[in-house]
Design brief:
Chain lengths: 188, 192
């Protein structure tokens, strides 16, 4: 059984939009001052433990454009080489960035992949995709990186239209940057 | 000088109020499902308090509830803090509340910042505030909070009310995970 793990950078008020400053919002790039070596190493290790990187269309378009050409650093190297799965009803194949399109039945496709043995599936961001996966109870782990700041506006990771969820805390790491990484599994 | 601590229960997605879902582990009732370490921490925090700052809408119900709980559960060391609440000075800040009739309770008419400054100038333990939402948001906006304590409950609700309004940076003091699933995050909100 593969595990599906979601890793997302959020503000204290639950906003996750444009942490890297990829031109989405005026306050984009808010996570950059906090993303040091510790964070890059941790992200790298999770990608190395994964066979697939999963995201929605918006995240795919932003990340592939921004990160696609970067060759420096182990994290970026792995990020660019890992096989990707992109959930979208509007994108057309072929996709770049070593990505495969999941056009329909996202839940079914992911459920099928999860039944295989192998490394985990790592997902970043992607609120809409995450909502669908939550509705089908397909997420095994949430890694929420709480940043010590309030954004006050912007898109939220957990959508108002999504399901409410009770979680089980499995770990907490406090980084020297002031970011608190909280790890949860769905409460069963 | 006294410090003002704002302590709020919060969801993982940053909301402090949601009427639709049952998201807090403890409903402040007679049976607290927190683990012993967190109960001890909460009692320790309250042991350093001698003033509770309350908003008008919340004051009456709050004082009644904890007075009753002190009578019912006050012999249980887990509920030792209820005596602290009863003994503390309760300062209610409200422009509209006509009067309030509880022991050790007084009304201040504001402005909020002046009220807080006056309380901080007195001798003794720290001041704590537990909300309500708008009141907490106003304190945060005014830059008068020395310590923000967020009890992050293991729930996601998607919508609700938040004490966070405008963009600002905070400074993390520490974060501690508890067996019951709550993570207590402490922040220094800084001056505005």
């Amino acid at each position: 059984m593969r595990k599906l793990s979601v890793s997302t950078l959020v503000s204290l008020d639950g906003v996750f939009q444009d942490p890297g400053g990829f031109g989405e919002t005026a306050q984009g790039g808010w996570a950059n001052p906090y993303f040091g070596n510790e964070a890059a190493q941790d992200s790298y290790e999770h990608l190395m433990a994964s066979d697939y990187f999963l995201c929605g269309r918006v995240t795919y378009e932003l990340l592939s454009k921004r990160w696609g050409g970067i060759k420096e650093g182990l994290y970026m190297e792995r990020m660019n080489s890992i096989p990707k799965l992109v959930a979208s009803r509007t994108l057309k194949e072929p996709l770049g960035w070593n990505a495969t399109l999941i056009k329909s039945d996202l839940a079914e496709e992911i459920a099928k992949l999860k039944r295989e043995s192998g490394g985990q599936i790592e997902m970043y961001g992607s609120a809409t995709t995450m909502r669908t996966l939550m509705e089908h109870d397909l997420i095994d782990e949430y890694r929420i990186w709480i940043h010590p700041l309030i954004l006050g506006s912007g898109k939220r990771l957990f959508l108002e239209t999504g399901p409410a969820a009770k979680l089980q805390l499995t770990g907490t790491t406090t980084r020297s940057s002031g970011v608190v990484v909280m790890t949860y599994t769905p409460a069963r | 000088m006294k410090r003002l601590i704002l302590q709020m229960q919060m969801t993982v997605d940053g909301f402090v109020s949601n009427e639709e879902h049952d998201w807090t582990l403890w409903d402040w009732g007679p049976h607290c499902p927190w683990d012993d370490t967190l109960k001890r921490r909460f009692n320790d925090t309250m042991a350093g308090i001698d003033t509770v700052l309350l908003s008008g809408p919340m004051a009456g119900a709050y004082i009644q509830h904890w007075t009753r709980m002190a009578e019912q559960r006050g012999d249980d060391p887990d509920y030792a803090f209820t005596h602290r609440i009863v003994a503390a000075h309760k300062r209610v800040v409200s422009r509209s509340l006509p009067s309030i009739d509880f022991p050790r309770t007084s009304i201040g008419r504001g402005p909020l910042v002046d009220e807080v400054a006056e309380l901080k100038g007195q001798l003794g333990g720290d001041i704590i505030c537990f909300g309500g939402v708008s009141f907490a948001a106003a304190l945060l906006e005014a830059g008068v909070i020395e310590e923000l304590q967020l009890y992050v409950n293991p729930s996601v609700v998607g919508a609700g009310r938040s004490i966070f309004r405008h963009a600002r940076r905070l400074e993390l003091i520490d974060a501690t995970a508890y067996d019951c699933g709550i993570v207590v995050q402490r922040y220094y909100p800084g001056a505005v």
